[in-house]
Write a structure and sequence with these properties.
By secondary structure, this protein is mostly beta strands. 0% of the residues lie in helices and 50% in strands. The strands form two sheets. Strands 2, 4, 5, 6, 9, 10 and 11 form a seven-stranded mixed sheet that branches. A four-stranded antiparallel sheet has the order 1-3-8-7, with no helix packed on it.
């Protein structure tokens, strides 16, 4: 079992940056792939970025490609999402998630992650 707690959200002007953190408690953090998702009001939860167990492989949604960086510190049981050049359409609740696929590859689907945090709100003003 893994418990996830996100932090770092807030209100930011368009063009600004934020760094989200997700602290994991429980055992064997390194055995989980980690992902960031977001959900805006009235919309489905969508994949933002994912990272492999070791951190050597990352994937991004087209909507944030080139503007975001996902990373993890396995010694601190923490995953990060650095977001730059934020746009009003980036406003959403951001969730981190943990999954344990057999092959350890980064996954994109909501249903492929087993544990979720409570979310942190990012609001980008124009």
């Amino acid at each position: 079992q893994v418990q996830l707690v996100e932090s770092g959200g807030g209100l930011v002007q368009a063009g600004g940056s934020l760094r989200l953190s997700c602290a994991a408690s429980g055992r064997a953090f390194i055995t989980y792939i980690m992902g960031w998702f977001r959900q805006a009001p009235g919309k489905e939860r969508e994949f933002v970025a994912g990272i492999s167990r070791s951190g050597s492989s990352t994937n991004y949604a087209d909507i944030v490609q080139g503007r975001s960086t996902i990373s993890r510190d396995n010694a601190k049981n923490t995953v990060y999402l650095q977001m730059n050049s934020l746009k009003p359409e980036d406003s959403a609740v951001y969730y981190c998630a943990a999954g344990r696929p057999v092959d350890g590859s980064v996954r994109y689907g909501v249903n492929e992650y087993d544990y979720w945090g409570q979310g942190t709100q990012i609001t980008v003003s124009s």
